[in-house]
Amino acid sequence: MLRRLEGWLHQHIFKVGWLLTKNFQTTTILYYTFFLPGVVLYEVVYWLAAGVLNVRADRALAWPEKQEVAELRLNFVKLSKKAGRIRLAIISVVPLVTGLGIAFLIARDVLRVPAFLTVLAAGNFDLIWPALTTLVSAPDFWLWVYLIFAISNTMMPNPKDLQGWWLIAGLVVAVFFVLFLLGAGDIVLTNLVSGPIFTVLNTLSGIFAVIIAVDLVMVAFLGTFESIIERITGDSATFKDGKLIAITRAELLAQREQQLKRERQQAKKPAPALPAGPPSIYNLPLPLPGAPGKEPVTQLPSVVLGADVVSPPLTLRERPVPPLIRPAGDEPNLPRPAMPQSERLSPAAARPSGNEPSTNAPSGKLPLPNTPLAPARPQPLLSPPADSDETGDEP
Questions:
Q1: How big, in percent rounded to 5, are the helix, strand and coil portions of the chain?
Q2: What is the pLDDT of residue 364?
Q3: What is the band of 289 on the pLDDT scale with cuts at 50, 70, 90?
Q4: Could you give the CA distance from residue 296 to residue 319 in angstroms, rounded to a whole number?
Q5: pLDDT on residue 78
Q6: Are residues 264 and 93 in contact, defined by beta-carbon separation less than 8 angstroms?
Q7: Tell me: the pLDDT tens digits for 334-379?
Q8: CB–CB of 116/137 below 8 Å?
Q9: Which of 91, 262, 277, 337 has the highest Cβ tally under 10 A?
């Protein structure tokens, strides 16, 4: 939540600067100036932490370059490339710890926030308004609120610089594992959780609650101020891929209306059905048989030429049973198949000669040839070659 609030605030502070100036260079300067207390604190602490860990840090003070992205580029101090991951991770976390500490001191010693939270926890509504009046009447209240806001929204480190913390976390886990093996892990963990760790976590939760409350106040103030400027000038802007794109207020309202329509249409769509799991035999549309003796006989669909009405399927009792043995003489009078054209004989060839017998054979039989066939000559059997002493003299 804190990250989202921070991103929204950075974008809309940059947008308000552009609506007032219509120039990206001037907007960039105003943007860095607004967060100047946090930028100065971050860079100074970053440089000091590098010196303590013996890492070379070069100052690269320069005027902020023109940018179209609502992002603070805190690169006024550049570390040496020889710095290891662990030292780089520690240096990157020091500004965060320092910012949280300063916000805690301002909330506790200047604004007296713990006393106000105690009244809220009591639940006495008659005392809430006097406690809020006492909180707001602190000397330079809005100045301290602005300092908390500027510092808390510039203290977050770059996620790329925190890769070394995986090694540190692994080392801490290994130490606790060794202590558990030695039998002292329970004592150490109980003393730490019930003592310093519980106190630190409770304090951090209070600090982050104060920071979120301050950010919400700034969101309300900034949103109102931005809306007034858009109504007066008729100009507006939006962000796409982090970059500011100038549009008119009418175009912005039309885009919001289209977005609302898409969301409503998406909400009206029925939710996709959940998968029913693996198929089951109980979900298959299987046919149900009829009563005994009335089972329908399923017939394959057929096409009958000249018939327009299809008779319904017959039951077992109504279906005729074909005879197994057909009596003699009941053969159906079917036409005999015609001889192919290639096998038919011409009239001249079919006429018999004087010495030849008539070839008029019964129908359906072929004529036999007059010349008898010679019997096949038997082939001699091959015998294995005999030995030289058994063959005898050759003639």
A1: 55, 5, 40
A2: 47
A3: confident
A4: 11
A5: 86
A6: no
A7: 566 555 555 555 555 445 444 444 444 444 445 555 555 555 555 5
A8: no
A9: 91
Q: What is the DSSP string of 87-155?
A: HHHHHHHHHHHHHHHHHHHIIIIIS-HHHHHHHHHHT-HHHHHHHHHHHHTSTTHHHHHHHHHHHHTT-
Closest C-alpha to 38, from 140, 141, 153: 153
Tokens of 291: 């009563």
Question: For 55-85, how does the pLDDT look when each residue is reduced to its tens digit (9 = 90+)?
Answer: 888 887 888 888 888 888 888 888 888 888 8
Which tokens sit at 354? 């004087």
How big is the chain, counted in residues? 395
Q: Does 275 or 110 have the greater pLDDT score?
A: 110
Element (H, E) at 245: strand 243-248
129, 134, 138, 144 alpha-carbon torsion, rounded to 10°: -40
- CA-closest candidate to residue 162, choices 93, 81, 79: 93
289: left (phi over 0), alpha (psi -120 to 50) or beta: beta
Closest CA to 132 of 303, 141, 258, 270: 141
Residue 299, CB-side half-sphere exposure with 13 Å CA sphere: 11
**Structure-block tokens of residue 312:** 């319904």
Find the mean pLDDT for residues 173-195: 72
Q: What is the pLDDT of residue 150?
A: 93
CA separation for the pair 84, 78 (Å, rounded): 14
In this structure, how many other beta carbons lie within 10 angstroms of the beta carbon of residue 358? 9
- The pTM of this model reads 0.61
Task: Tell me the CA distances in angstroms from 210 to 2, 17, 112, 251, 312, one per residue in order.
Answer: 11, 26, 12, 37, 85
Find the DSSP H helices in 139-281. Answer: 141-152, 165-182, 185-192, 198-233, 249-268
pLDDT-based confidence at residue 48 (cuts at 50, 70, 90): very high
Residue 207 CA to residue 205 CA, distance in Å, equals: 6
Tokens describing residue 281: 């035999």
Distance CA 180, CA 162 (A): 28
pLDDT at 320: 56
Res. 305: pLDDT tops 60 = no
The radius of gyration computed from the CA coordinates of the chain, to the nearest angstrom, equals 52
Going by the DSSP 8-state scheme, the letter that residue 212 receives in this structure is: H
